[in-house]
Amino acid sequence: MPHAAPHGGWRSPISAADIASSQVPLSFPEIVGRDVYWLEGKPLEGGRTVLVRLSADGDRQELTPPPYYVRTRVHEYGGGAYLVAGDGQTAFFSNFADQRLYRQDYGNAPRPITPEPPVAAGERYADAQASPDGRWLVCVRERHAAAEGSEATNELAALIADGSAAPRTVASGHDFYSNPRVSPDGRRLAWLCWDHPRMPWDGTELWVADLAADGSTSHAHRVAGGTEESIFQPEWSPVPSESDTLYFVSDRTGWWNLYRQRDGAPEAEALAPMEAEFGTPQWTFGMSTYAFLEDGRLACVISQNGFDHLAFVRPGQPVALADLPYTAISRRIRASGNALVFVAASPTEAAAVIRMDASTGKREVLRRGLETPPEAAYVSRPRAIAFPTAGGQTAYAIYYPPTNPDFVGSPGELPPLIVESHGGPTAMTLAQLNMGVQYWTSRGFGVVDVNYGGSSGYGRAYRDRLRGQWGIVDTQDCIAAARYLAASGEVDGRRLAIRGGSAGGYTTLCALTFHDDFAAGASYYGVADCEALATDTHKFESRYLDGLIGPYPADRDVYVARSPIHFADRLSCPVILFQGLEDRVVPPSQAEMMVSALRAKRLPVAYLAFEGEQHGFRKAETIQRTLEAELYFYSRVFKFPLADPIEPVAIENLQ
Prior knowledge:
Blueprint: E1 3-4, H1 16-22, E2 26-32, E3 35-42, E4 48-54, E5 60-62, E6 82-84, E7 90-94, E8 101-105, E9 111-112, E10 123-130, E11 136-143, E12 153-160, E13 168-171, E14 176-182, E15 188-194, E16 205-211, E17 217-225, E18 231-236, E19 246-250, E20 257-261, E21 269-270, E22 290-292, E23 298-304, E24 307-313, E25 320-321, E26 328-329, E27 334-336, E28 339-345, E29 352-357, E30 363-368, E31 383-388, E32 394-400, E33 407-408, E34 417-421, H2 435-441, E35 446-451, H3 460-463, H4 473-487, E36 496-501, H5 503-514, E37 520-524, H6 530-535, H7 544-548, H8 556-561, E38 575-580, H9 588-600, E39 605-610, H10 620-638
Parallel strand pairs: 1-33, 34-35, 34-36, 36-37, 37-38, 38-39
Antiparallel strand pairs: 2-3, 3-4, 4-5, 6-7, 7-8, 8-9, 10-11, 11-12, 12-13, 14-15, 15-16, 16-17, 18-19, 19-20, 20-21, 22-23, 23-24, 24-25, 26-28, 27-28, 28-29, 29-30, 31-32, 32-35
């Protein structure tokens, strides 16, 4: 029989130490012939990421030895950090420490093929693609000057694959570039570009140019896109008879759908028009939501009503959905022949690298991100909820009820609720096994993960709800989710907490400052001063707030009005803040200003800062410490006993 105990104080087999050390981040799968590659994180090695190959005979090998760390800092968020050459014998990758591009021939040590820049880590490379003959590469290059305050330069560059010559610029003049793609016959180059103040999900342009044998371009012209149309993942057809046909995803109808542009045709052809998202916000390089199969179909990852699906598209035929257990599929699907590889998860299965035969449907798990998952009885099964919010709108979320077979709440007690506010804010949360969520639910908390207005996955109109309304719509929707669950009798409306990282940290601080619905909050590298973010952040996001709030400095008064730092006197509940001291996206000064304001008001506050951490924590010891510290903080605020000892956190001003 389960024991009655206060919610939050249940003993759980899901420990912070296990979450920090046993979860292996898996990303960016690739398939070349019958060999499969992916990136694998190593939390116990300071978060280092390595390139892994699983050969056709089942031999697993880590290709990049210490101290190499496969990660690019282009746009700070990176992605597209490696490329495997067509024969599978050579890999190219960006090394995190110096940001140079390295070549590694099978059996040999990596060697740099780009020059040492005049500024340390000042020349960065991403999204490299090889010419059909493998002689040279074209990639995105981001150059940082030594002058204080100068903006980085982004461009497309070509370089000889053996490093015998310095890279040279082949396309420039726009603020941002991505997705350089060489046609199979080597005669044409396609790419995406966009300019301030737009983000890639606001408006991008698809360009095509003639390509010479040495990588130089001519006759460049725009094919699609503009200031109000977001283009995603251009790819040339691999079919020899349509080598000049370009595929891409566009949101011109209000949904990211798949299109085909034949050479010389006046209009692109919609291949599968539907109210579903075939694309996704391009936060990182190297994303792909569709891949060409040998049998003529396209395998596509689509998002609909908050869930992911694997779909097969054959032009002129209805879309066919694969019968799979997965509800979350990574935005990186790759194919060789009729074999697919992708990373996928379900509400009860952690992310894993999957190989699938698209002809038979047979699937194979190549690598699990969590080798020993928790017992099923301790896993909270989520459900999607839709709820009313401000202005007569509907918002969406995923709710995880408290789940532990060994415990029930004390008589008459309802569980406390944690509201999760995802980062981005142009992003989305999916129903998948998240051990961080299960850490809370197995201890007696309810958790609601909110896809507030502005989230992707629900069409452009829903995404645009946040235009000019950041800090308002997202906050209102998080509050509405908490109120909805409290009114339904599922959670204790007096014990509501909100937490989030980055943009989710901003929503958290707004909810705590401008409203009084929550009794506690946790901000992970969250924005406290919008004006400081607008004037002190990296190039990729330096004009992001123009769309979310308004042009700066013309709308400076709005920035001030939306910044929790200027209204800390309205705070009335305890807050814990976590910050990486090497964060360039949201600098530590943001958290430090908020802590100072909380101290001045003598509100309960805890602040934990971590050396060597950037935007998003990667070290196992940091992940463990933050989870345990946050639980300790809630135990003191909500006054429940801890089931296991935890290293205390200094909480100032707590009576």
